[in-house]
Structures are given as C-alpha cells and as structure tokens.
C-alpha cells in the first residue's frame, strides 16, 4: 500500500513534469523588429562610427530613468506601443551586450538602426548603420544561435510563431533619393525609384518568409515632407508637397505588395499599416488633438536650425506632450502614441497576453536624468498598455 505521502509526492512530480513538458512544447511569442531610427532601441548607440546616435541627453527623457537609451525620441517608439498593446515583450537591441540565447527566446530581438533603409546605399553619409539586408543577415545569425541552443525543429516553431515588424522607407527618400549627393537621386525618376524600392522590399519580404516569418506587419510612411527638417529647407516654411507625394506613392505601392504577398506566400499573414492621414490631420490641426506645435522640434538649439540631433546644449519646449515633433526628424512620444493607436485600430490588433509572465513590467516613476555612465541594458518598460501617456515630468 502506498502511503498518502508517497501518492502526494508522485502527484507533485507528475505535475512538475507536465509543467516542464508544456514549457518545452510551446515557445513564447516574441517579436523581431527590422527598422530605422523610428524603431531603433540602441543599435546605433553601439555603432561607434555612426553619425546617427541617440546617445546624449535629452533623448529618452520621458522613458524609464530618463537617460538616453538609444531611442530617437523623448519616450517610446511606435513599435514599443503596439507591442505593449498586444502584450508582447519589448525586444532588446541586437547590439545589447547582455543579449543571450535565453533572452532572445524570452524577448525576441530588435535589429532597427538609425539611418538604415530598404536600399543598401541609403544613409551612406551616416557612415555606420544597418540597412535592411544587413539586418536580415544578422537575423540569420541569430537563427543559427537559437538552432544550436534548442534544435532545428523547436527553432523553426519558435521563428514561425513570432511576430515580425518591418518599418523602413523614410531614409530611402530623406537620406537618399531626395539628396543630390546620392547617385540614386539622378539615376531614377519618382516612379522608377518607387519601383526599385518595391522590387527590393519584395525580395526582402520573401527572404524573411523563407526564414520562417509568418505573421508580419509592414509600417507605411507618415507625411515626411512635414518633418521640421523638411519645412526649414522649404522657402515658405510649409510642408514639402513633393516629399509627401512620394510617401503616399510608397504607401500605396507597399500596401499592394504586402497584400499580394500575404495571398501568395504559404501560411503568411502579412499586413500593411500606416497612419499617414491621421498624422497629416494632426499637423494641420494640432489644437484639435491637444497639441500646440506641429512645425518645429521640441528640442532645439536656440535659433540654430536645423540642428539635426537633439544635443545636451539644446533647450526643450515647456510641455513635451504638446509638440508633435521631438527633434528635426522624429515624432514625440505622444505623437508616436497617436500613430500606434491608428495602426492598432486599422489592423484590429487585440490584446492577447500570449506571454506567460505578463510582459510590460510596471514602469518606474519618471525621474530626472542621473549621471550614471551606463544605462541599464534592458530597456525598462514603462507603462501598461492602456495607461494614458505620462505627462512630462520636469517641464513648466
Ligand atoms: C546589399 O547588402 C547585402 C549585405 O548586407 C549584400 O549581401 C547584397 O548583395 C547587397 N545588395 C546589393 C544590391 O548591393
Ligand atoms: C503551412 O501550414 C501547414 C499546417 O500548419 C503546414 O503543414 C505546412 O508545412 C505549412 N507550410 C509552410 C510553407 O510553412
Ligand atoms: C501638457 O500637455 C498635455 C497635452 O495637451 C496636457 O494634458 C498636460 O496637462 C500638460 N501638462 C502641463 C504640466 O501643462
Ligand atoms: C500654445 O499654448 C500657449 C500657452 O497655452 C498659447 O499661448 C499659444 O497660443 C499656443 N499656440 C498654438 C499654436 O496653439
Ligand atoms: C497575462 O497573463 C498572466 C498569466 O496568465 C497574468 O498573470 C497577467 O496578469 C496577465 N497580464 C495582463 C496585463 O493581463
């Protein structure tokens, strides 16, 4: 006769074994992010020779501990906000020195790099950046590491179960086609350049599919002719209409490409999401949305414009939530939130909480920047998905 104690021990052991088996059988759903400075969470910060790095104050002032964290914004990126909404962990930067196979299996990886484009030649003036092909090459290396760690079969399941974001294109115009120093500006016309971009993006999306990407979202472009840098370069101070037209053509062509691929590639759910119209309306009617400036950067160096990046010497606007743009190129946290919400609405993303241990960790209270030399490697998540945007801390 088995004693009650033995029965209990056996029961506990069976439960423990079942627990381990269920963990082995189902990898976590994570994200792999490919992008430019709008999605970079620290890759360029580690590229010593890059001329596009968000490594100095006041970048990150409204994020976690307020130190620069590699994001080209005062707060969160659009991908941060969408991932939080879906309930997925925020993937660390590929160049994060603390990245390990275990971290990749728990959180995914973010390959986005400021200055990067769909085209290899885009952003050449920034010297160092990962273009999309390079990001995919780094992803292949990551896959090899994971295969060695958990075996080919489990790895294939892991990568097929993951979510993918591809968010590039702004630099292919702003830091390539529209600048005469780049040869693409005279080799192509508007129409042939868009065709060239689409042909390249099609190959890249097919390549990602061949590597296992099944659930993938491509972000479209906003009205990039209205970023402060474009306005200051126009004689009237208004938006550059030609640039906006190019962004609209890009969006139209990539929406079609993504929808076609979603139909033709086996088991693919590829979606296209953009927030062009909402952002254009915010820029035209900032007051309607609680903004009060939509044409200049919140962070600026007195009257010296364009200052390209936000610098420690720069001064900040009084209320960072009332500015659509954080610097000459990049939207503020609050504008990113509007963009993210629009994409979430359009694509019908639901909160799934697919992670077993609830990903968005509670945010630390906002604190003034400290002078600790090394920022923590894990970007601290800062708000629960439904939390309203924090009001900036140290303004007014
Ligand atoms: C683009 O760069 C990748 C490496 O990052 C290289 O393999 C590829 O051949 C390049 N493509 C072109 C068209 O230059
Ligand atoms: C598509 O999904 C089915 C069912 O899960 C699977 O058997 C098949 O191998 C998949 N095909 C590809 C190309 O992933
Ligand atoms: C800053 O602006 C936001 C958005 O308009 C507003 O909700 C908030 O109250 C403002 N904060 C301060 C301190 O004025
Ligand atoms: C921005 O807000 C300030 C202070 O509330 C106000 O004086 C100013 O007119 C506003 N500007 C715009 C463009 O809404
Ligand atoms: C997500 O799921 C986990 C485990 O079921 C739960 O503990 C956690 O509270 C959930 N998170 C949210 C934000 O609902």
TrEMBL record:
**Signal sequence, start to end:** 1-27
What is a single molecular function from GO for this protein? hydrolase activity, acting on ester bonds
Q: Which GO terms describe its biological process?
A: lipid catabolic process
Report which superkingdom the organism of origin falls in: Eukaryota
Per the record, which residues fall in region Disordered?
354-396
Q: Which UniProt keywords apply?
A: Hydrolase, Lipid degradation, Lipid metabolism, Signal
Is Cell membrane a UniProt keyword of this protein?
no
The protein's matches in InterPro entries, at most eight in alphabetical order, are given as:
GDSL, GDSL_Est/Lipase, SGNH_hydro_sf, SGNH_plant_lipase-like
The answer to whether UniProt assigns keyword Signal to this entry is yes
- Which family does the UniProt entry place this protein in? Belongs to the 'GDSL' lipolytic enzyme family.
- State what protein this is by name: GDSL esterase/lipase
- Native species: Papaver nudicaule
Q: What is the lineage of its organism?
A: Eukaryota, Viridiplantae, Streptophyta, Embryophyta, Tracheophyta
């Amino acid at each position: 006769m088995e004693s009650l104690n033995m029965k209990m021990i056996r029961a506990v052991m069976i439960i423990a074994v079942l627990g381990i088996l269920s963990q082995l059988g189902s990898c976590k759903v994570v994200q792999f992010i490919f992008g430019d400075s709008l999605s970079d969470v620290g890759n360029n910060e580690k590229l010593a020779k890059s001329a596009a790095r968000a490594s100095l104050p006041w970048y990150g002032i409204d994020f976690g501990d307020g130190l620069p964290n590699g994001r080209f914004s005062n707060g969160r990126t659009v991908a941060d906000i969408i991932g939080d909404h879906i309930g997925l962990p925020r993937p660390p930067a590929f160049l994060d020195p603390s990245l390990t196979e275990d971290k990749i299996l728990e959180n995914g990886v973010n390959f986005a790099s400021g200055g990067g484009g769909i085209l290899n030649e885009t952003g050449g003036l920034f010297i160092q950046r990962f273009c999309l092909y390079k990001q995919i090459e780094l992803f292949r290396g990551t896959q090899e590491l994971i295969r060695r760690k958990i075996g080919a079969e489990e790895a294939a399941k892991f990568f097929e179960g993951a979510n993918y974001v591809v968010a590039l294109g702004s630099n292919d115009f702003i830091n390539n086609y529209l600048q005469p120093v780049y040869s693409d500006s005279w080799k192509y016309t508007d129409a042939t350049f868009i065709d060239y971009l689409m042909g390249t993006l099609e190959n890249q999306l097919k390549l990602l599919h061949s590597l296992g990407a099944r659930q993938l979202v491509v972000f479209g472009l906003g009205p990039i002719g209205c970023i402060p840098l474009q306005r200051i370069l126009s004689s009237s101070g208004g938006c550059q209409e030609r640039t906006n037209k190019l962004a609209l053509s890009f969006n139209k062509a990539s929406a079609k490409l993504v929808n076609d691929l979603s139909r033709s590639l086996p088991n693919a759910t590829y979606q296209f999401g953009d927030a062009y119209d909402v952002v254009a309306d915010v820029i035209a009617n900032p007051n309607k949305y609680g903004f009060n400036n939509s044409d200049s950067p919140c962070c600026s160096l007195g009257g010296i414009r364009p200052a390209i990046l936000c610098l420690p010497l720069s001064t900040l606007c009084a209320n960072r939530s009332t500015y659509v743009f954080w610097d000459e190129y990049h939207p503020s946290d609050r504008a990113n939130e509007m963009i993210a919400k629009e994409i979430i609405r359009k694509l019908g993303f639901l909160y799934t909480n697919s992670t077993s241990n609830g990903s968005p960790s509670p945010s630390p209270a906002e604190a003034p920047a400290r002078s600790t030399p090394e920022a923590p490697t894990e970007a601290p998540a800062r708000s629960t998905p439904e939390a309203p945007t924090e009001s900036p801390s140290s303004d007014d």
